[in-house]
Amino acid sequence: MILMKDIVRDGDPVLRKRAAKVNFPLSDEDKKLAHDMMEYLEVSQDEKLCKKYGLRAGVGLAAPQVGKSEQMAAVLVPPLDPDAEDQTPSFKDVIINPVIVSESVQYGALTEGEGCLSVDKDVPGYVPRHDRITLRYTDVNGEDHKIRLKNYPAIVCQHEIDHLRGTLFYDHINKQHPFEAPHDTILIG
Ligand code: N9Y
Ligand code: NI
Questions:
Q1: Which pLDDT tens digit goes with each residue over 18-62?
Q2: Which residue has its alpha carbon closest to ligand 1 atom 29?
Q3: 160 assigned to active site
Q4: Does residue 98's CB lie within 6 angstroms of at least one atom of ligand 1?
Q5: Which CATH class is domain 4-188?
Q6: In the chain, where the domains are located
Q7: What's this model's pTM, rounded to 2 decimal places?
Q8: Pairing of strands 107-110, 185-188
């Protein structure tokens, strides 16, 4: 099981490298990596298990964050309404070789800014991203997907894809005016 000690921290060059494309069919090692990354998210989102294992709850985890420079990330976005009957996640999959094939002109940013499991310090400020994206990726079974995402799930996937390109969330924050976003940025969450 992936624990906090396994998560690579800012300063490690692996977080600044471009990750390599993943080949199919997946090797047993890549299958295990995909499984372990999703397991981390599931365990971390269970309040009791999160405490028990001393984790930080997360909605995404990219392979470079566990020291593997490969284009793979697990995403587990909880349902929008925590009290709804249907507790199906808004988005759940391991995205492999993901590519954003189109993006809205409209920007979006999380009201609270962003954090990262690989960044221990708080870096306040808006992280302007595209509000809507069309994403192409392959899943662990080798099946191709082309999906549209908006708002929070779109923000999460862009944060993960950034990890695969060597970018960290604070790279996007305006250094002089952290809470100034490009004109017409909608605030999310
Ligand atoms: C994990 C990040 C990814 C998200 C950050 C902003 C958009 C994607 C992550 C650090 C601490 C908080 C945590 C988080 C959460 C939110 C809702 C429900 C449950 C991947 N990462 N977080 N960032 N947790 N948990 O670095 O999940 O937002 O690359
Ligand atoms: Ni991150």
A1: 999 999 999 999 999 999 999 999 999 999 999 999 999 999 999
A2: 61
A3: yes
A4: no
A5: alpha beta
A6: 4-188
A7: 0.98
A8: parallel
